[in-house]
From TrEMBL:
HAMAP family: HemL_aminotrans_3. The modification N6-(pyridoxal phosphate)lysine is found at residue 291. SUPFAM superfamilies: PLP-dependent transferases (SSF53383). This is Glutamate-1-semialdehyde 2,1-aminomutase. Its cofactor is pyridoxal 5'-phosphate. It comes from Mucilaginibacter calamicampi. It comes from the Bacteria. The lineage of its organism: Bacteria, Pseudomonadati, Bacteroidota, Sphingobacteriia, Sphingobacteriales. Signal peptide: none annotated.
Length: 455
């Protein structure tokens, strides 16, 4: 039974390669659920990266999470470093978040009218963030970014935006655009269904490239509404940028009357309460948040100065709305989670814990001369199969190195360690990961690295 399901739903070459380490965990129930899911959803999933296309085996169907742990449909237990792709900075099912959600949902799920909870979450954020004065809640990161782009265009009365190869900003039309060939180009659509005319409004350049930046602003003088960047690019590896480069973006925007948008959907509330803007002490014009802000429920937001936000409907002419925006249950989760983050030494403890963890892994790999680097910032880390001292541009990632990640991912799963199913994805540490969990994880990582590099 298991073997036939495996053959049906995993790449055939995977099945042919016998595991190099521990025997594969049972995925029987997950495989059954996946077979059924494939009859309902394209690829059996509701978001593509969940489909395990670039790692071994069928996707694991999760039935429970608690603290830093996950349990799948076959009752396998994992220490989780995906953390729902970032939102769960307190781990799964944190009692404070759960209790607040249960309390609020006793009074109903949605009203389509304002509630005090929206004020409460907004006040928590704005009181502790010197970079924005007003905000608008939405229901996802994609929506936050899409709205921020419209606001920048409405505010500057310009159409073009500039983005970077290797940054992800959600799946809206203007942003599913990748670099064409050449230093400065109009983008090419990276998804079917995006009109070419949309891609023509998006300029795409490489990260950490000042010449391309200057050339873009010279070629399209007076036409660029905004630069949008993940100030901590963490969706295509972890492509850390220098403060100087981010400051250059700030200066170029100011000099050209363009707005600087920091897409902090991952970095916001992650590297510190004020996110990357606070970390680098650089003030963007518009910031987008998502993921952590909703405590695991769907929340996003965009914020800016009161003057810029004054352009948003109903005060201004930039239209943006949402039936479930500011949903009370989602607000409750956000309030409970952000309240924990504001406790003294929360980030210091989390970031120190992460630093010790990644340092130990790097020491191990370096001692054995493995071509392997752990890049990290705050409680975000990324495993790169490289000998480069730093990687700040998407071109510097060797696609062939992903084969090594694939082996490592399988070995980690077999040792009860769950990572997002792609070598381009970063890992996250939550406050629920304790020393013993991280020790266990390190041992599993050491064993897996030995197997990856054995060949
Ligand atoms: C996750 C992410 C998004 C998209 O957010 P969704 O909630 O998935 O729509 C946008 N920008 C960045 C930087 C992200 O990490």
């Amino acid at each position: 039974m298991l073997d036939s399901i495996k053959k049906m739903f995993s790449g055939d070459e995977d099945v042919a390669v016998s595991t190099t380490g521990k025997p594969d965990i049972s995925r029987e129930k997950s495989a059954e659920l996946y077979a059924k899911a494939k009859t309902f959803f394209p690829g059996g999933v509701n978001s593509p990266v969940r489909a395990f296309k670039s790692v071994y085996g069928t996707p694991l169907f999760i039935k429970k999470g608690d603290g830093c742990r996950l349990w799948d449909a076959d009752d396998n237990e994992f220490i989780d470093f995906c953390c729902s792709w970032g939102p769960l900075i307190l781990g799964h099912n944190h009692p404070k978040v759960k209790d607040k959600v249960i309390e609020v949902m006793q009074n109903g799920m949605s009203f389509g009218a304002p509630t005090a909870l929206e004020n409460e979450l907004a006040e928590l954020i704005l009181k502790n963030n010197k970079f924005i004065e007003k905000l608008r809640f939405v229901s996802s990161g994609t929506e936050a970014v899409m709205s921020a782009i419209r606001l920048a265009r409405g505010y500057t009365k310009r159409d073009k935006i500039l983005k970077f190869e290797g940054c992800y900003h959600g799946h809206s039309d203007s942003l599913l655009v990748k670099a064409g060939s050449g230093l400065v180009t109009f983008g090419e659509t990276s998804s079917a269904g995006v009109p070419k005319s949309f891609a023509d409004e998006t300029i795409v350049i490489g990260l950490n490239d000042v010449d391309a930046l200057n050339k873009a602003f010279a070629d399209f003088k007076g036409q660029i509404a905004a630069i949008i960047i993940e100030p901590i690019p963490a969706n295509n590896g972890l492509l850390l940028q220098s403060k100087e480069y981010l400051q250059t973006l700030r200066d170029v925007c100011t000099a050209n009357g363009a707005l600087l948008i920091f897409d902090e959907v991952i970095s916001g509330f992650r590297v510190g309460f004020e996110g990357a803007a606070g970390h680098y002490q650089i003030k963007p014009d518009i910031i987008t948040y998502g993921k952590i802000i909703g405590g695991g429920l769907p929340v996003g937001m965009y914020g800016a100065s009161a003057e810029i936000m004054g352009h948003v409907s109903p005060d201004g002419g930039v239209y943006q709305a949402g039936t479930l925006s500011g949903n009370p249950v989602a607000m409750a989760a956000g309030i409970a989670q952000l309240t924990e983050l504001l406790k003294s030494s929360f980030y210091k403890d989390l970031n120190n814990k992460t630093q010790e963890f990644v340092d130990a892994i790097q020491r191990f790999a370096t001692a054995r001369s493995y071509k392997f680097k752990v890049f990290s910032i705050g409680s975000i880390f990324w495993f790169a199969f490289t000998d480069k001292a730093s990687i700040s541009n998407a071109d510097e990632i060797d696609p062939a190195s992903m084969e090594k990640f694939k082996v490592m991912h399988r070995e980690l799963i077999n040792r009860g360690i769950y990572f997002g199913p792609s070598g381009y994805e970063v890992g996250f540490i939550s406050s629920a990961h304790n020393k013993i969990d991280l020790e266990k994880t390190k041992r599993a990582i050491f064993d897996s690295l030995d197997l990856v590099f054995k060949k």
